[in-house]
Amino acid sequence: MLYQLDLASAAASRKIKLELLADLGIFEKFIEDFFATHIHELIPEDQLMIIAQERRRQEEADLLALDRKGALYIFELKRWQSNPENLLQVMRYGQIFGRYSYEDLQDLAQRHNKLEGSLAKKHQDYFELNDALPHMAFNADQVFVVVTNGVDKDTLEAIQYWKKKNVRIDFLSYKLYSLAGKPHLYYDTYNPELDVIQETNPGVCVVNTNVSYMDDAWRDMLTAPKAAAYYDRKYAVTGIQNGFTVYLYHTGVGVIAKGKAKGSYRKTDFAGDKDAEYFVPLALDWALVDPENWKYAITAHEINKRMNSGYRFRQTVFGISPEMAGAIDSLWDQRKNEMNAASHHDVETG
User: Fold this and answer.
1) How far apart are CA 119 and CA 109, in angstroms?
2) Listed residue (67, 64, 40, 32) closest to 50, CA to CA
3) Among 240-244, 279-283, 319-323, 339-343, which is the least confidently predicted range?
4) Which of 179-183, 187-191, 273-277 has the lowest mean pLDDT?
């Protein structure tokens, strides 16, 4: 529910009316495009690894993803009002993809340009596991997720029926409002692990250097300098605005740079693919450009220990609180002192 608050009288606060696509003159294709460009906010990258995304004229689910245990998540994004028949579509995809072997999933991910090489190794690296999962663990379980404009009584009853049959079906609803004559859309991030996902106001964010997909992307980001994202994840940087504080995080290493956004996002070609990279220029405050100095990077463990939290840093872009930014800055001050002391020692012993 969304209310317009009356600060003079809580009881007089007014509930905002829900709208339908037709009421706002919005077409289904727009909703499809919206979620396609906001996947990084709909699907938590620290909980799920996307291995396939719908291609035109193919009988495929909108999204397929794996969790850390190898369970396959099948997403169906419905652009119209909830209907029990929506479940039949996602169950149909379960019939198709639920039978996929490890080799089938690996081939699928490679055809969708989500993978080069071994799926088990990529999965191990992505979730930072000590050991790779055995092949038989992949797709041993399936979870069906329907994203729709509201959920009606019949759909809820159908979901309850299938859950009693030990079939896990989740739903995520988005809602449409008209505020001051302009359309607004509200939705929550899907949260399979039931972690606390706090929405932060924009202004300070962390951008992952994408090493899991491209070994050398970090080098380009530091030398340009810029915060960049690529292919289906490229839209994640579009929310970074001029003046935002940006920390660059290198998976397996830690925070290796801090800067300020200079302007809004831009597009460029990448590896011969048109507009495959979106980036925001940065003015760096500091950077660990030489990998030999990465021992001074601020690790996720240190940040979480300082914050008494268990935050994971695999998302392409995510906002952080002023408190977390302050913790990173404080740790960097310590690092600078360590680097200066080490440099002074090297001069004396040289």
Assistant:
1) 8
2) 64
3) 339-343
4) 187-191
- The residue ranges of DSSP E strands in 39-141, in sequence order, are 49-53, 63-66, 72-81
Cα-based torsion angle of the residue sequence 200, 204, 210, 211 in order, rounded to the nearest 10 degrees: -110
Strand residues in 215-272 grouped as ranges (E)? 226-230, 245-250, 254-261, 266-270
Report pTM.
0.75
Weakest mean pLDDT among 70-74, 98-102, 109-113 = 109-113
How many Cβ atoms are within 10 Å of 210's Cβ, its own excluded?
A: 21
Per-residue pLDDT of 211-227, as tens digits, reads 877 888 999 999 999 99
pLDDT at 103: 96
Q: What is the CA radius of gyration of the chain?
A: 22
Domains and CATH numbers, the chain: 20-186 (no CATH), 204-349 (3.10.590.10)
Q: How confident is the model at residue 347 (pLDDT cuts 50, 70, 90)?
A: very low
Q: How does strand 175-179 pair with strand 182-186?
A: antiparallel
Describe the chain by its helix, strand, coil percentages, rounded to 5. 35, 30, 35
CA distance 181 to 23: 12
- The reported pLDDT for the residue numbered 349 is 47
Mean pLDDT computed over every residue of the chain: 87
**Phi/psi of residue 256, nearest 5 degrees:** -115, 0
Sign of CA dihedral 98, 100, 106, 112: negative
Tell me the C-alpha distance between 82 and 277, whole Å.
35
- Phi and psi of 106, rounded to 5°? -65, -45
Distance between CA 61 and CA 89 in Å, rounded? 9
Q: At what angle do helices 300-307 and 322-349 cross, to 10 degrees?
A: 130
For residues 10-20, one letter each, b for 16 or more C-beta atoms within 10 angstroms of the residue's C-beta and e for the rest, the string is eeeeeeeeebe
Round to whole Å and give the CA distance between 171 and 61. Answer: 15
